[in-house]
Automatic annotation (TrEMBL), chain A:
The pyruvate dehydrogenase complex catalyzes the overall conversion of pyruvate to acetyl-CoA and CO(2), and thereby links the glycolytic pathway to the tricarboxylic cycle. Its cofactor is thiamine diphosphate; Mg(2+). Keywords: Carbohydrate metabolism, Glucose metabolism, Magnesium, Metal-binding, Mitochondrion, Oxidoreductase, Phosphoprotein, Pyruvate, Thiamine pyrophosphate, Transit peptide. It is an enzyme of class 1 (oxidoreductase). PANTHER family: PYRUVATE DEHYDROGENASE E1 COMPONENT SUBUNIT ALPHA, PYRUVATE DEHYDROGENASE E1 COMPONENT, ALPHA SUBUNIT BACTERIAL AND ORGANELLAR. CDD domains: TPP_E1_PDC_ADC_BCADC. This is Pyruvate dehydrogenase E1 component subunit alpha. Its main location: mitochondrion. One of its GO terms (cellular component) is mitochondrial matrix.
TrEMBL record, chain B:
One of its GO terms (cellular component) is mitochondrion. Its cofactor is thiamine diphosphate. This is Pyruvate dehydrogenase E1 component subunit beta. It is found in: Mitochondrion. Keywords: Carbohydrate metabolism, Glucose metabolism, Metal-binding, Mitochondrion, Oxidoreductase, Potassium, Pyruvate, Thiamine pyrophosphate, Transit peptide. InterPro entries: PDHB_mito-type, THDP-binding, Transketo_C/PFOR_II, Transketolase-like_Pyr-bd, Transketolase_C. PANTHER family: DEHYDROGENASE RELATED, PYRUVATE DEHYDROGENASE E1 COMPONENT SUBUNIT BETA, MITOCHONDRIAL. Its main location: mitochondrion. It catalyses: N(6)-[(R)-lipoyl]-L-lysyl-[protein] + pyruvate + H(+) = N(6)-[(R)-S(8)-acetyldihydrolipoyl]-L-lysyl-[protein] + CO2. One of its GO terms (biological process) is glucose metabolic process.
Length: 374, 331
């Protein structure tokens, strides 16, 4: 019998943790900011890597399925921004709350929805996380409130969730995300005012990926210092391509909020490789060179990989094995998402109301009726 | 005898006491005691946590209220008038009404949006619009429109206890009007079921269907007509009480008996509540019992003018109802 050597190195050869220098955050109305060093254990690194890689491959698979017309309607992909949603999730508690806009697949996964349920929701099947009723922009799970289609509307909602956190007194925080495009919405400034006035435990997070659809930040905002736009709300500007930077900043912001000081604002500087949505090639308002430069110099997954390998936290082979495992998981999820049946027609009428006795809903003409159950 | 204002106040007081998740927010609801004094005394009794004065930021505070409801609080969100709800209508429709459906029933939004709706007196075009048709259009919402004190108290309590977003369209001119309140209606657990119309007065010659303040006008018209030998169903008609889900069955059953239908509302005619009633009567069993086409009495199809004589002619008056009834009865 011959023995096959699976790994060339023993786990005992790896470091258990390493310390990294991270970029200092620009501060607004804050005396001190997050630490400029971050400690990452081997386990943490492997977890961050796997999670980000899963989101990356899930989004690329969605791109494929969309081009095959198996996913329809709107599809806003998150590849490039993985460090934001994963860095956030690892810094907060499962009992904290998260709400974001429509570029939400990464958050949906990070908050605990399996890939197969996300893809099946995108393909409109009954096994989707909301039974095919919501689609790309309306996915929910415990302590995750979507997935919101109206630009900026999620921000007051997030402050409302924070109000409830304060009301119930359970020391939970709501992380309320919006993009650089949404940052110019009036309702966000109304929300800043009330959140500060009432000291709501709300962390406002602006994911600045430099473009609101096809409009660059310079063409949309008189002030592109999004971390300062909360005016009386303290803010910090964070390197959103570095997961450790995001993690440390989020911990800092969460602590600030939990201590009862009121809201705080984080701007995460990040980048999306895809266009605004699947109907946007993403090159009429920015150059291919720019996209390529970010990919080669600032890719969040590559950054993490290099750090881990260079600090002896993991080997290239080990990370490659994770890649293989991720690919497999995505393939299986895609298989499920393309073969699971569409929701039954009866589902059309359901969930109009909550906790309501069954009633009838009108279809396209007076003779077509659907039953509505809660 | 209890005024609509006091009935609403009682409802709020009782529900705030009954369930600590219930809270009230809106402009001037706390220290001012409410722009129309509906929340008088409540801030003194329940404090800052339960009765919250907001800045003038409808879109913002409505969104905040909806977000709070999504996590299990039970907000009562007051619009000083429903005209201002237009600034926040995205939050009412897209965030509140549709969320249960989009989330396949996993997120409930137990919120009440309330405030005065429709014409007042001399407040002109931007402060006089009726939103019954606008909100009644949307699946996922419940829309109620009280007339009497019993309606007001019972429907507000039912709305607060309902796990769904409810729009309650009150009427400023009714706030000061006293109505008889039965013993039963004064109990702390008295609720008026949402989705059920009330027959205010029986009759045999014509069915008058209305909601909110015009119910009173219908009753007056019915009294005049009764003297002339025309019995109108409903003592002012059938009081719809709920716009959505609409109790068309009660209307149908009445039309089958009377063979004549007149709808009365304060809002504009095009795409209004009356238009919906007429369409449904056409589609249902009652059509074959109509002896004449159904007729609508509505607000005039213009923005509300200021001058009193003009304004008076923009609102359905008792004489307009009587005229319409006589036309449909061909007398």
């Amino acid at each position: 019998a011959s023995r096959v050597v699976v790994a060339s190195r023993n786990y005992a050869d790896f470091a258990s943790e390493a310390t990294f220098e991270i970029k200092k955050c620009d501060l607004h109305r804050l005396e001190e900011g997050p630490s400029t060093t971050a400690v990452m254990t081997r386990e943490e690194g492997l977890h961050y890597y796997k999670t980000m890689q899963t989101i990356r491959r899930m989004e690329l698979k969605s791109d494929q399925l969309y081009k095959q017309k198996i996913i329809r309607g709107f599809c806003h992909l998150y590849d490039g921004q993985e460090a934001c949603c994963v860095g956030l999730e690892v810094a907060i508690k499962p009992t904290d709350h998260v709400i974001t806009a429509y570029r939400a697949h990464g958050f949906t996964y990070a908050r605990g929805v399996p890939v197969r349920e996300i893809l099946a929701e995108l393909t409109g099947r009954k096994g989707g996380c909301v039974k095919g009723k919501g689609g790309s922009m309306h996915m929910y799970t415990k302590n995750f409130y979507g997935g919101n289609g109206i630009v900026g509307a999620q921000v007051p909602l997030g402050a409302g969730i924070a109000l409830a956190c304060k009301y119930f007194g359970k020391n939970e925080v709501c992380f309320t995300l919006y993009g650089d495009g949404a940052a110019n919405q009036g309702q966000i400034f109304e929300t800043y005012n009330m959140a500060a006035l009432w000291k709501l435990p709300c962390v406002f997070i602006c994911e600045n990926n430099r473009y609101g659809m096809g409009t660059s930040v310079e063409r949309a905002a008189a002030s592109t210092d999004y971390y300062k736009r909360g005016d009386f709300i303290p803010g910090l500007r964070v390197d959103g391509m570095d997961i450790l930077c995001v993690r440390e900043a989020t911990k800092f912001a969460a602590d600030y909020c939990r201590s009862g000081k009121g809201p705080i604002l984080m701007e995460l500087q990040t980048y999306r490789y895809h266009g605004h949505s699947m109907s946007d090639p993403g090159i009429s308002y920015r150059t291919r060179e720019e996209i390529q430069e970010v990919r080669s110099k600032s890719d969040p997954i590559t950054l993490l990989k290099d750090r881990m390998v260079n600090s002896n936290l993991a080997s290239i082979e080990e990370l490659k094995e994770i890649d293989v495992a991720v690919r497999k998981e995505i393939e299986e999820a895609a298989q499920f998402a393309t073969t699971d049946p569409e929701p039954p027609l009866e589902e059309l009428g359901n969930h109009i109301y909550f906790n309501e006795p069954p009633f009838e809903v009108r279809g396209p003409n007076q003779w077509i009726r659907y039953k509505s159950v809660s | 005898q209890v005024t609509v204002r006091d009935a609403l106040n009682q409802a709020l007081d009782e529900e705030l006491e009954r369930d600590e998740r219930v809270f009230l927010l809106g402009e001037e609801v706390a220290q001012y005691d409410g722009a129309y004094k509906i929340s008088r005394g409540l801030w003194k009794k329940y404090g800052d946590k339960r009765v919250i004065d907001t800045p003038i930021s409808e879109m913002g505070f409505t969104g905040i209220a909806v977000g709070a409801a999504m996590v299990g609080l039970r907000p009562v969100c007051e619009f000083m008038t429903f005209n201002f709800s237009m600034q926040a209508i995205d939050q009412v429709i897209n965030s509140a009404a549709k969320t249960c459906y989009m989330s396949a029933g996993s997120i409930a939004v137990p919120i009440v949006f309330r405030g005065p709706n429709g014409a007042s007196a001399g407040v002109a075009a931007q402060h006089s619009q009726c939103f019954a048709a606008w909100y009644g259009h949307c699946p996922g919402l419940k829309v109620v429109s009280p007339w009497s004190s019993e309606d007001a108290k019972g429907l507000l309590k039912a709305s607060i206890r309902d796990d769904n977003p409810v729009v309650m369209l009150e009427n400023e001119l009714l706030y000061g009007v006293p109505f008889e309140m039965s013993e039963q209606a004064q109990s702390k657990d008295f609720v008026v079921p949402i989705g059920k119309a009330k027959i205010e007065r029986q009759g045999t010659h014509v069915t008058l269907v209305s909601h909110s303040r015009p119910v009173g006008h219908c009753l007056e018209a019915a009294a005049v007509l009764a003297k002339e030998g025309v019995e109108c169903e409903g003592g002012g008609v059938i009081n719809l009480r709920t716009i959505r889900p609409m109790d068309i069955d009660t209307v149908e059953a009445s039309v089958v008996k009377t063979n004549h239908l007149v709808t009365v509302e304060g809002g504009w005619p095009q795409f209004g509540v009356g238009a919906e009633i007429c369409a449904r009567i056409m589609e249902g069993s009652a059509f074959n019992y109509l002896d004449a086409p159904a007729v609508r009495v509505t607000g005039a199809d213009v923005p509300m003018p200021y001058a009193k004589n003009l304004e008076d002619n923009c609102i359905p008056q008792v004489k307009d109802i009587i005229f319409a009834v006589k036309k449909t009865l061909n007398i």
